[in-house]
Design a protein that fits this description.
The complex is a heterodimer of chains A (91) and B (432). Chain A is of the alpha+beta class and 91 residues long. Chain A is built from two helices and five strands, in the order ββααβββ. Chain A has a single domain, classed as Ubiquitin-like (UB roll) (Roll), CATH 3.10.20.30. The longest helix of chain A has 11 residues. By secondary structure, chain B is an alpha/beta fold. Chain B folds into two domains: 152 residues, 3-Layer(aba) Sandwich (Rossmann fold); 200 residues, 3-Layer(aba) Sandwich (Rossmann fold), CATH 3.40.50.1100. Chain B is built from 15 helices and 15 strands. Classes of the chains: A alpha+beta (91), B alpha/beta (432).
């Protein structure tokens, strides 16, 4: 499956200046593994040492918070949009 | 516009220091930034503070500016009053109500944070301010922007109460209703802050904005006669207010203005959106987000950014948290109105109902002096209580008609409104 990952400005330098990335995988975890393989500096800002989502970012799959739908194990489909947003906002 | 300067910021996670700017997260670790106050700065004593203007700026040494901010000078210093009838009804020793429902100019505690943020925006030369809001912040941003002559973009969930929509649009703000919950609006505004050069007060100005909430704690301490209560009960949405109340009390203790210990902090949420209460109960360290389902829209944040910090502050002070049903919160609104003459909105109803539940669970007792933080005004959310009040048919303008009503009231007195729901089983859980 091929999905598009949108990064916030603060992570763009860690992806060699790319604001959006194409990624492949059957789950979100596999898609994240794919981009981290190509842009290793993103790794610590997308996952923690236990492989969970990094505490200061929130992942949205097609606008839905992935924590409400299975986290990184959520399946992805061709054309899905993943948005990464800094977690510290609002209230 | 103004020559006021802003303090630098420091990451609360990795300690990286940043010059002042319109950003609120650390470039290194994405952790939250907070103003970096100099420990060597000169602090005022009680007498100096007491001689200053009666606004939140009397505590300016604990706000993130260098020099005197010029905008929104008259916000803050809302009433704190003794409420013995409500204390008896709730079963606590002594009860004070801190009423930010009459905050100037927009009738909620959000005036405090926006007064701070609008001065930060001015100091940074930003020409537009914006926010993601559940209603009260929308009103405050629109009002303070109008006073400052700044354009404002305000993003809210589409189903907000009418009073909050009107109290935003009336100031000339660009009001954008977004399909979805507040959490959808918040995600959108995080992207908006990335895209446009605006000061989104609770996104890229968040480190400065949040500091305004500390003044609620400062005022409580000063208005009690430079001392601290045993406990404070406050509503929780994003969780920031609870963390800043704790920070404010600790700052005044550190400055020697009051003696410790810091009050026990108790957080209140609606049962239909209680991720912070659940975190306190579980003892965990990460929020599990929820999809809000409650009439308490002003605190309906399913993914609270400061939820973990709020739970930590609550635990550190020996406090606790409680969630109440929508029926209980409506009863709480009526309870406060009937015992104190204050008409609050849904968040205030949650706070009162939670205090009742906490007292019944033994968390608040007859020896406790308690402050309830009432953060908003009931006139903004009249629809939530309309159904609970009933209505009588109009009468002819005849004295005989009134006489009949009076005689009827002797035979079947109108019951004091409180509150079948509030007398039901409390939702506060016992500590593990």
């Amino acid at each position: 499956m091929s999905v598009t990952i949108h990064l916030p400005n603060v992570l763009v330098p860690l992806a060699d200046g790319h604001r959006t990335l194409d990624a492949r995988g059957d789950t979100l975890k596999e898609a994240i593994d794919d981009v981290v393989g190509r842009y290793p500096r993103l790794a610590a800002r997308l996952r923690d040492e236990h492989g969970r989502p990094y505490e200061y970012v929130t992942f949205y799959l097609n606008d839905a918070d992935i924590r409400l739908n299975g986290g990184f194990e959520i399946p992805v489909r061709d054309g899905d949009e993943v948005t990464v947003v800094p977690a510290v906002a609002g209230g | 516009m103004t020559a006021v300067g802003l303090l630098p910021q420091r990451c609360r996670h990795c300690d990286t220091r940043y010059e002042p700017g319109a950003f609120a997260i650390c470039e290194q670790c994405l952790g939250p930034l907070a103003p970096d106050y100099s420990e060597r700065r000169s602090l005022p004593d009680r007498e100096t503070i007491g001689a200053r203007e009666r606004s939140l700026w009397r505590y300016r040494e604990w706000l993130p500016f260098e020099g005197e901010p010029e905008l929104s000078r008259d916000t803050g210093f809302t009433p704190l009053f003794d409420a013995p009838s409500l204390a008896r009804a709730l079963g606590v020793g002594r009860l004070w109500v801190k009423n930010d429902g009459v905050s100037h100019p927009s009738l909620s505690f959000k005036d405090r944070v926006v007064a701070t943020a609008v001065n930060a925006a001015a100091a940074l030369g930003l020409e537009t301010i914006a926010c993601a809001s559940t209603g009260n912040l929308a009103n405050a941003v629109a009002a303070h922007a109008a006073r400052a002559g700044l354009p404002a973009w305000v993003f809210v969930p589409e189903d907000l109460e009418e009073g909050k929509l009107i109290a935003t649009a009336i100031h000339g703000a660009r009001l954008v209703r977004v399909r979805g919950t507040y959490d959808d609006v918040n995600r959108l505004c995080a992207q908006v802050a990335d895209q446009f050069g605006w000061g989104v007060v609770n996104v890229n100005l968040r480190g400065y904005y949040g500091e305004g909430s500390k003044t609620l704690a400062f005022e409580i301490a000063e208005q009690l006669g430079w001392r601290l209560p045993a406990a404070v009960v406050a509503p929780m949405a994003g969780g920031s207010l609870v963390t800043k109340l704790h920070a404010g009390f600790e700052a005044f203790i550190a400055a020697g203005l009051v003696n410790g210990p810091a009050p026990r902090i108790y957080g209140a949420q609606a049962a239909g959106c209680a991720p912070i209460v659940r975190l306190v109960e579980s003892g965990g360290d990460r929020i599990t987000p929820v999809v809000p389902k409650t009439i308490a829209r002003s605190i309906a944040i399913g993914n609270p950014a400061d939820g973990a910090g709020a739970a930590k502050a609550i635990r550190r002070t020996g406090g606790w948290a409680a969630a109440v049903s929508d029926d209980e919160l409506v009863a709480g609104i009526r309870h406060l109105a009937e015992h104190t003459g204050v008409f609050t909105e849904t968040a205030g109803g949650v706070t009162v109902a939670a205090a009742r539940a906490l007292a019944r669970a033994g968390k608040l007792g007859e020896n406790d002096e308690v402050v309830l933080c009432i953060t908003g005004n009931g006139l903004k959310t009249v629809e939530v209580v309309r159904g609970s009040l009933g209505s009588e048919p109009p009468i002819p303008a005849k004295l005989a008609a009134v006489t009949a009503l009076v005689e009827q009231s002797f035979t079947s007195p109108v019951p004091r409104a409180l509150c079948q729901a509030a007398q039901s089983t409390p939702s506060a859980r016992e500590a593990p």
